């Protein structure tokens, strides 16, 4: 199981690098899908199924709409691929920054088991079962602020 979780973590990092290092939205969307699916699988392996469902529905759905919009605006007949020298150099630089961060931050902390959503707790229910209730009870103000920000962003983009 640990090897599978490390594989999902590697896929997540590589998907994020693919999104960040490619200037063309045609290829960046592939990295987004890989990163979202790997992150979702990683969260499911930890036992946090509610957050995983939110990741797939909200993040991936919303970002794919943004990528479709940017692809329709770009309309590039010859987009830059991952094999172009600029994209390879940028991806190598991002990978180098990630590796230096792991070395400086101590990669041994990554392999420490922190438990799952339902281990060693005094709560009678799993932690991810109370996610929706906490979102609407304590997070109502943040939901309103987020909705207002999205509406404002929509008007700015349409202007």
TrEMBL record:
Bilayer disposition of the protein: Multi-pass membrane protein
Cell location: Mitochondrion membrane
Signal sequence extent: 1-20
Keyword Ion transport: no
Annotated Pfam families: Oxidored_q3
Keyword Transmembrane tagged: yes
Record-annotated membrane-spanning stretches: 30-48, 53-75, 87-112, 133-158
Family: Belongs to the complex I subunit 6 family.
Protein name: NADH-ubiquinone oxidoreductase chain 6
Species per Swiss-Prot/TrEMBL record: Ploceus ocularis
Gene name of the record: ND6
